[in-house]
Design goal:
The complex is a heterodimer. Chain A has helices spanning 46-53, 75-81, 97-107, 112-126, 141-152, 171-186, 198-201, 221-228, 233-249; strands at 6-17, 20-31, 35-40, 61-66, 69-70, 82-86, 159-163, 190-194, 206-211, 214-219. Chain A is of the alpha/beta class. In chain A, a hairpin with a 2-residue loop joins β1 (6-17) and β2. Helices cover 34% and strands 27% of the residues of chain B. A 6-stranded mixed β-sheet of chain B has the order 6-7-8-3-9-10, sandwiched between helices. Chain B is elongated. Classes of the chains: A alpha/beta, B alpha/beta.
Chain lengths: 250, 302
């Protein structure tokens, strides 16, 4: 059961680049332990909004708090309370599994003892004992992503931000990856995830749909499908984004 | 046959990228090469576009053996996975450039690209590097088409593209096929298989099967069930511990389940889950999707 305690609160958050409004007064809340899908078309403003929430970009106006910290004044505390992984940047290919864990553990300020214990548990859980001292580049993409997810959780963050974590990953590994997400959420970690796979949108407790800088819809997948009278999240997506295109033409 | 591939193999050091790959593509056919990253898709495109030679096997493209690179390069349109137009040239300049290196003009073949080009024409003076993802993709397709190729080779044109742009792109391909062009397109999105006339599923360098999407899902070979519950995580864990579970995977709002037995007893599974405290289980028999079929074939053939 989800709590009702908000861990991300966003109010009228806006980001402008010159006269282009990338994020247009968006407001939403994410509760502790929720799997929150942050969806939208290419160029809708998802990445810009996410950069603000992880504390590496300053908004033009509006307010937000992440893990209880303010996005204007407490960005360093935010960075310590969250984990982040994306399809592109995950781990250092030239370092071994062991070195990557030590490196990221060190960055997040874990003690040597904590790092040792965490890496033993992690490697055993993923069944990577025999690859522990091999470079990451030897691992298949799916394993790299599972490892990257585990490393992003190394410092026990309250929230983990996942930016298209499963792009191009094979279907079985993609599902093993989602099992890891479910497990983390079950332990109370909040998951904030973007994806282009609409079946993965269905795995979320709630999803928001961004169109041209605004949040056009936000609800559980079941209720969104009911509202738009369609059978899949893909159709919800197409309906929302297409409506917008039509409105622009008129 | 516009593309004919017979027993093509290619290794890079210890890694076998392609292992005796065989299939063919007819004129007017939209043929999909479907599989995850690292499966060998791009290597196969490089071989068919004469950018790389295979270790063994034979292939012809537009009727020419792959050693005849001059003839093939004139006959194919190629859209590589990475954006590879000139970012400093405008939309119009890129298009003219590609027309001129193939010894033709934009006007001579405008008919073929009109449907697609009208969508980017308002930006014809914009630098290609400054276009949005969807626009870049449309321009790249126009440039690949401008010399009226017999064979169109598209390496993951929809990767990282949102569902709406993906849908539009496939609609364009569907119309192009009517010109008699053979279209060979790769994707990691399994749901795009249903938009192809025929597909080859590729995994770890091997073709798992080649057929129409309908025939592939029809040969799944065992009953498949969809299970729905609010507590996906707990239900999955409990089903993993059930004695007759063969596979259990999340699929959108459902879990897909196969049973070890030939005649699965779903009432028993229902009872098992009720004993574990799950009261909201909905269990139905369903038709498999291409993704179900892919996972099944990848599992049984490796």
């Amino acid at each position: 059961m989800l709590s009702s305690e908000p861990i991300i609160s966003v109010e009228k958050l806006t980001k402008k680049f010159g006269d282009f409004t990338a994020v247009n007064a968006i407001s939403f809340k994410v509760v502790k332990g929720e799997i929150f899908g942050f969806l939208g078309a290419n160029g809708a403003g998802k990445t810009t909004a996410m950069k603000i929430l992880v504390g590496i970009s300053r908004p033009t106006s509006g307010n937000a708090s992440v893990a209880g910290f303010d996005i204007y004044t407490q960005t360093e505390q935010i960075k310590k309370s969250i984990g982040y992984m994306s399809q592109r940047f995950s781990l250092y290919n030239d370092l071994t599994i062991k070195e990557n864990i030590e490196f990221f553990g060190g960055i997040y300020g874990l003690t040597n003892r904590q790092i040792r214990e965490k890496s033993e548990a992690l490697v055993e859980k993923l069944g990577l004992q025999d690859k522990f001292t091999r470079p990451i580049s030897d691992l298949p993409l799916g394993w790299k992503q599972k490892l990257a997810f585990s490393v992003a959780l190394l410092h026990d963050p309250k929230i983990i931000f996942l930016d298209e974590p499963t792009g191009g990953v094979d279907p079985v590994t993609r599902r093993m990856f989602w099992n890891m997400i479910y497990e983390a959420a079950y332990r109370g970690v909040t998951i904030f995830v973007t994806t282009h796979y609409m079946d993965e949108a269905e795995y979320c407790n709630r999803v928001s749909m961004m169109v041209d800088g605004r949040i056009e819809a936000l609800d559980s997948p079941t209720r969104l499908k009911e509202k738009y009278g369609v059978n899949s999240m893909n159709d919800v997506f197409v309906r929302l984004a297409r409506n917008q295109d039509k409105a622009k033409v008129q | 046959m516009k593309i004919k591939v017979e027993n093509i193999s290619k290794s890079f050091g210890q890694v076998q990228a392609l292992d005796r790959v065989t299939f063919d593509v007819k004129a007017g056919e939209l043929f999909g090469l479907i599989g995850p990253d690292g499966g060998g898709k791009t290597t196969l495109f490089r071989i068919l576009t004469t950018l790389m030679l295979p270790d063994s096997g034979r292939a012809t493209v537009a009727g020419y053996p792959i050693a005849n690179y001059r003839a093939i390069r004139r006959s194919v349109g190629y859209m590589p996975g990475r954006f590879s137009l000139y970012p400093d040239l405008s939309v119009e300049e890129n298009l003219k450039f590609f027309a001129s290196i193939f010894g033709t003009t934009v006007e001579a073949n405008y008919e073929l690209i009109r449907d697609i080009y009208v969508q980017i024409e308002p930006f014809r003076n914009r630098r290609a590097g400054a276009l949005s993802g969807g626009m870049k993709q449309k321009l790249a397709l126009c440039c690949a088409l401008i010399h009226r190729p017999q064979v169109l080779l598209l390496d993951e044109p929809t990767t990282g593209v949102d569902p709406v742009s993906r849908k539009e792109f496939w609609e364009m391909l569907g119309r192009l096929r009517q010109n008699g062009m053979a279209i060979f397109v790769s994707t990691a999105y399994m749901d795009e298989a249903s938009l192809c006339d025929r597909v080859a599923l590729i995994h770890q360098g091997k073709i798992l099967t080649t057929n129409t999407p309908t025939n592939i899902t029809a040969t799944f070979g065992r009953p498949l069930f969809a299970i729905r519950s609010r507590n996906v995580y707990e239900v999955t864990r409990d089903i993993e511990a059930y004695a007759f579970t063969r596979t259990i995977y999340p699929f959108g709002e459902h879990l897909h389940y196969t049973d070890k037995r030939e005649m699965p007893d779903t009432n028993e599974l229902h009872d098992f889950l009720r004993d574990k405290g799950h009261r909201d289980i909905e269990l139905t028999t369903i038709q498999p999707t291409i993704e179900d079929a892919f996972m099944e074939l990848a599992e049984t053939q490796s």
